[in-house]
Design a protein that fits this description.
The chain contains no helices and eleven strands. The strands form two sheets. Strands 2, 4, 5, 6, 9, 10 and 11 form a seven-stranded mixed beta sheet that branches. A four-stranded antiparallel beta sheet has the order 1-3-8-7, with no helix packed on it. By secondary structure, it is mainly beta.
Length: 118
């Protein structure tokens, strides 16, 4: 199982950008799909983005398509989420996830708060 640690969350203004990073420990990182899930207060968890094991395929929720970009560096055991054109509705705790798909993942990070002010 992967151990995942997120960083890069914080406060941004609407229209601004943030970049989340997720450092993974474990020898199998380069063989696993990775993803980002978010949960806003009082709402259910929402799939944000996913990337396959070698970065050749990426998938996005309609709500973030064209604004967010998921990428990975297998040499550094790290996955990223570049978030541009942020909106207040992007405010949530963002979780890095590994080895799974959609909303079902074997590994979860502790989460990082992203707050977007209007």
């Amino acid at each position: 199982q992967l151990q995942l640690v997120e960083s890069g969350g914080g406060l941004a203004q609407a229209g601004g950008s943030l970049r989340l990073s997720c450092a993974a420990s474990g020898r199998t990182f380069s063989t696993k799909g990775m993803g980002w899930i978010r949960q806003a207060p009082g709402k259910e968890r929402e799939f944000v983005a996913a990337i396959n094991y070698n970065g050749g395929s990426t998938y996005y929720a309609d709500s973030v398509k064209g604004r967010f970009t998921i990428s990975r560096d297998n040499a550094k055991n790290t996955v990223y989420l570049q978030m541009n054109s942020l909106k207040p509705e992007d405010t949530a705790v963002y979780y890095c996830t590994g080895d799974g798909w959609g909303l079902t993942w074997s590994s979860w990070g502790q989460g990082t708060q992203v707050t977007v002010s209007s």
